[in-house]
Amino acid sequence: MAILSGTLRPFFSYYGGKWRDAVKLYPAPKHKRIIEPFAGSAGYSLRYHQHAVVLYEIDPVVVQVWKYLIKATPSEILAIPDLEPDQTCDDLNIIQEAKWLVGFWLNRAAASPRKSPSAWMRAGIRPGSFWGERVRNTIAAQVDSIRHWEVYNSGYIECPDDVEATWFVDPPYQVAGRHYRFGSEIIDFDALGRWCQTRPGQVIVCENAGASWLPFRQLASIKTTRSNRSHEVYWLNNFDAASMPDLFSEVAHPK
Fold first, then answer.
1. Which CATH architecture is the domain 22-51+150-252 placed in?
2. Which residue has the higher pLDDT, 206 or 121?
C-alpha cells in the first residue's frame, strides 16, 4: 500500500486532541524531527507525518495502541470486526491492543478506551465518526505511513536533552486537565515550564486560559468536540508574530 503524501487523519479519538487545530493555529515544524512529550493521539505529528516523529506518553494503554498501529498491516486492521448491538470490546476475538483501538472509537474524545458504544454511536448519529467501515478503512490506508515513528512509555523528563527538534508540548492542562488517567494533578508545572525553556530547537506549548507556568499568549476560542468552548493559549520559545494567527480568533469545529 502506497505511503500517503498528505496529512493523516486521527488514528483514534482522544480527549484534548489537537489534530483539527494543528494547521490552523500552530506554526509548522522548523525541524525534520518532531517530539511530542505528551503524545496522546499525536494530532500535531499527523499533520507532518513524514518527519522523524518521536512520541513520549506516560499512559501505557495509549503507548500500546501506538505500538500496535506502527507495526500493524492494512489487512490486520481491515480484519478487526464491527461490534454487534449487544456486544462489548471484550466479546471481540482480537488482541488487547486492537480492543483498545476500537474502544477509543466507541465514544468521541475520551481519555481512555471504552468497552461499550456511547449513546451517540448506538443512535447512529454520524456513524462515520465511530468504529465501523469508514474508520477501519481510513486507518488501514494510513498505517504504512507511520512505520518510521517511535513511541516510548515515558514521561517528559525522560526525553533527551541534546536533540534539536520541533517540540510540541501539549500536557494535561493545569486547570482543566484532570480527566486523564495520568492528569494534571501529577505534574509539577513550574518544573515543566523550566524544562520547556531549555529544549534545543523549536518549542510550541499548548495550554488553556488560566495557566500560569509560562508567559502564555491568547490564541483562540475553540468549539470542542463536546460542544463546549476552550479558550486556548500558547507559548513559543522564539516568538514570531507573523507566524501566528490573530490573537483570540474564533475557531469552530465543524459538526
1. 3-Layer(aba) Sandwich (3.40)
2. 206
